[in-house]
Design brief:
Blueprint lengths: L15 E9 L2 E9 L4 E9 L8 H30 L17
Antiparallel strand pairs: 1-2, 2-3
Length: 103
Amino acid sequence: MTRATGNRPPSAKEWRLNLYLSERDPATRARVVLDTGDNVLESCAEAHRNPYDSAVPEIGDELAAGRALISMGRQLLRAAAGGITAAGAPEDAPPAPLWFPQE
């Protein structure tokens, strides 16, 4: 995903992120599409309401969207790590994870 930039001057960039939500009770699905101008990344996630809980669609939206965004963040970190390796950076111990997901 990453390319060497040489000696180009600093610049501003805009990445477009679209978040799509769809609900079919008791499930909510989120799809995130990130367009960097050079690449397009996509991630999806779901949230499922317990049938004994009250129907509050906003909670399903938040859970599904948050999970899809976390997945997108992981993709970006993997792409950056690949770019760092491809650029010939020395290998260091990986950083400690911020959380331990149980996916």
